[in-house]
Amino acid sequence: VDQGPKGFCVPATMERMLRYLGIPADMYLLAMAANTQPGGGTSIRDVLWAVADPVRRAGRKITGLSGSPDIARISKFIESGLPVLWAITTSDAIDNRINEHTAARAGV
């Protein structure tokens, strides 16, 4: 899903995952529900809350895993054709570089 210059990586990824599962989704609605701002910064909790009902209505569920996402643990999901998503948290230095890149893409 093309997120354009907005930096909506989490909503775009969630839209793609939902579409893969046959669940209609819209990146912009997901971004609004998750309070995503241009340039990024999405609350994973908010985006999961936003998709909980559509996922449930489609007869699916979201399963959270704790600990390291090593290949032995996630291979069963992958081999079943289920998408696997994980979130990362970045440092201020990386966030600043991402923001500079986003501004450059927007021509600011």
**End-to-end gap:** 24 Å
**How are helices and strands ordered from N to C?**
HHHHH
Uncertain ranges: none
Number of DSSP strand runs:
0
Shape: globular
> Strand content of the residues, in percent?
under 5%
Q: Classify the secondary structure makeup into a structural class.
A: mainly alpha
Main beta sheet? none
Q: Helix tally?
A: 5
Helix content: 40-55%
Mean pLDDT: 85
If you compute it from the alpha carbons, what radius of gyration comes out, rounded to the nearest whole angstrom? 15 Å
What does this structure look like?
53% of the residues lie in helices and 0% in strands. The protein is mainly alpha-helical. α1 (9-20) packs across α2 (27-33). The two termini are 24 Å apart. The relative contact order is 0.15. The mean pLDDT is 85.
Question: What's the structural blueprint in terms of helices and strands?
Answer:
Elements (H helix, E strand, L loop, with lengths): L8 H12 L6 H7 L10 H14 L13 H9 L12 H15 L2
Short characterization:
With 108 residues, the chain is mostly helical. It contains five helices and no strands. 53% of the residues lie in helices and 0% in strands.
